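Single Protein Entry

Contents — chain, fold
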Amino acid sequence: MPISCMWVVTYLGISVENVREWYKDNYSL
């Protein structure tokens, strides 16, 4: 598995976590 692929997977994982946190902050009213 190339390094670039691993970087993309990591980046997507971080993005998903950020979206999840943002969603909780904005919609857990």
Q: What stands out?
A: The chain has a mean pLDDT of 90. The CA atoms of residues 5 and 11 lie 10 Å apart.
